Fold these 2 entries.
Entry 1:
Amino acid sequence: TRLLFQPRLLLTFLVLLALILTYRTRNDNGLALEDALYLTKNSLRELKQLYLPSKEQKLHHDAVEIDYPLGNAVNSFLPIDATIKYNTTERSGNITTNELRARYAAFSPILNHQVRGNFHILADGACSPVELGEEHTNKILIVMRGNCTFVEKVTNILGSNSKPLAVIVANDEPYRGLVTMFSNSFNQDGSLRLPVMFVSYESYQSLLAVESLDVVLTLSTASFGSWLSIMLSMILSPPLLILIFYLVVICGQNIKKRQASLLNSKLVRELTVYIFNNDHLIEANGLAHYLKVTGQTTNTPKDDSLVESPSTSTTSSTSHLNKIIINGIDIRESAQNLHVLTAPGDFYPSYKCSICLDKYTPLHSRVLILDCKHFYHERCLSNWLINFKRSCPLCNTVISAPNESLLAGQDRAFHYGSTDNDLEAQN
Ligand SMILES: [Zn+2]
Ligand SMILES: [Zn+2]
């Protein structure tokens, strides 16, 4: 069974790979996903303008339009990146655009548009109240990480009355990735109007190199594609892959189980239903014919006294001597014409169902008989075969092929009632 699952697993991985590839190509060509995101964002903003006009007006007071992210905790799991662009002029006169990656703090508002401005690198880490001259107002302020918390730095810079456009915190160690600055309490009400972002030590060095050149930085939010990449990387994380593997295995087992039970129910449907009548079983389809010939009705079950030899006392060695005669008809002799099975040659006599332990009602109980000559209530055996085991509950004989050999020699498509004359002759 383990070998059976391997092609399925391979297929699952191929499908995943195909999904990733289509996502990649889509992202490169049409940006359809991002368009959709942009439209969603726009419609949400319109909704906000309609129903929350006061808040929106406050937003427009600032030169920078600002969005608020989902919340501190969510943002630290799904970091949002920003880009810092600036132009430098080479010796040859060519202008090159440099692009640096930055990451928004979890408590930072997210920019809807670009922020442009000169920058100033603070001399100290802004761990104490910051004093800035007139020339440093309305600038993007860059501060080094370390010695105190991010929030303390931002608070000190905000207290300086220098009206910064943005605060960029630079890593103090080289070769480190971007960090999402996080705070449990800071800016919970969303009153911060200033984007706060983090850059690597290497980016800081690049900015330091152009500090004296009066370079204008352009800050903007990186495309939302990065969000999706992060989500994708989360989906492809090892624990999730293990979970997917587990689910695939479980699904495979369930499918196998369902197929087995489907096969079993097909098998059960192919079994002929009989009506119980003590020492003989009547084929359910031929019951009307049987009742007519033997002059019985289902309302008044045949009395036990009518049976000359009770089924419980018969043995296989003397079975041919015992006769079952109802209203003068020898059931054993006309068994084939009446579509009747007789005990103990055709089945082991029993007065109760071994599955539910209920007694059979003569001429009423519908039963199924197995190759091993054990018979049970139709409902009990169907349930057993479909849901539990494909074998006889009593003797454990496995049911393999459709039960066609039971009435061997008899024509299945036999037309009931066509032998009326023969039976009446016996009468
Ligand atoms: Zn039963
Ligand atoms: Zn059996």
Entry 2:
Amino acid sequence: MRFLLDREDITVSVVGLGYVGSCVAVSLADNGVDVVGVDVDASLIEEMEAGRCRLKEPGLPELVAKGRGSGRLRVTTDFAAISDTDVVVIAVGTPVQEDGTLVETQVESAATEIGLHLRAGQVVIFKSTVPPGTTRALVAPLLEGGGLTCGEDFGLAFCPERLSQGSALAEIRRLPVVVGGWDERSGAAAERFWRAGLGVETVPCSSIEAAETVKLLNNWWIDHNIALANELARYCAAIGVDAMEVIAATNEVPKGKGNINVLSPGVGVGGSCLTKDPWMLWRSARERGVDLSTVVTAREANEAMPGYVAGLIVDGLAALGTPADRSRVAVLGLSFKNNTGDLRSTPTLPVVSALREAGADVALFDPLADPDEIRKEFGVEPSSGVEGAASGADCLAVLAWHDEFAELDMAALRALTAPGCLFLDGRAHFDEQTVESLTGLGFTYRGIGR
Ligand SMILES: NC(=O)c1ccc[n+]([C@@H]2O[C@H](COP(=O)([O-])OP(=O)(O)OC[C@H]3O[C@@H](n4cnc5c(N)ncnc54)[C@H](O)[C@@H]3O)[C@@H](O)[C@H]2O)c1
């Protein structure tokens, strides 16, 4: 059996239309591929059918509407739809328990259903992040449940996803895709698919397990690198050196095949991946008698940041003569990183909780986050505008910096706040000029590691 994909007009089904699945589906549809998205969440399918999208990713709602309008993007809860497609992409969620063990429910049910509808000649591409070995030991046997044989009747490849919130749609058409095939034919078919469907380069791996490990190494590295930046920032603050200057200079230095690339310090690490994938890796290693102490160390360093940032605010207020329990703090930006409204595991929540515990009156504003989600996560009514939040504030705490904040009239905001208002730069990483202009307006600037 020769797997399809040597034709121009390939069709694709994407199973799991969460963050990853919907970005992949709309990007393929926008490139002219016929896509059918399948999800068990009927309300999500209803919304997408109507051309709407609940996810806040920039450009995603527009591409959902465009895909529905052009007819290139169909959505359904019915798994039978996958039978008509050449490629089946799986992007269901893979949460972990406290101890890092994979919660297999979504993968298990999706692979079982797909197995019942697979037909000979199809290629299945698994994108969910999993402990190495999962594709071979769990997914492949379930896909074979309908009677077909993996590698003979259908192809299988693991292709990890690298996109990140805020720039997902650009990244999906730019970043190379790592491909680990069940066998050579599966790998080659998956490579052809990504090159033709999204116009991206591919990075072949010699096994599925290597490709699965690539994804975990990616997030291990990012979490670790951020931990390094965060600890550097705490150290620089203690010796009176600007951490951003140190990082910028260090990153100029060639090392190996590229430059040293230390990331930036911030409020902490959140989102759905960096908070779980390192533990998934740690658990998988432990089951084989390997102790990955760097995973634990990096997680601890990053998890300590919200408390550190709350401390910076409380100390900064005290230095200005305002005890925390008589202060008003306006938090601008609540998401877990810049330019997204995603509140999943956001480290801004423990900062806000610590400030409240210290007695501060905390106002919240994030133009990208859904007000209902803010209410649910933070338990308070968000301000509808930045002015309302900033009014009478002793501290403006920018915990996530969105591009649209650059339009803010800082002089007007300063006029609304208390005199000498503390400006806590949690993620804006302002350059020297901007810091000077904020200081010139009468703000007292403090940044992480600055
Ligand atoms: N979010 C990211 O930035 C990101 C980046 C890289 C990799 N990943 C990985 O990609 C995978 C998907 O992540 P996500 O953020 O899109 O998850 P998500 O939770 O946003 O979406 C998962 C979707 O799968 C659906 N689903 C659950 N069970 C199903 C089933 N049996 N059949 C069909 N659909 C089903 C859910 O209804 C949901 O819509 C995870 O493994 C994640 O670790 C995520």
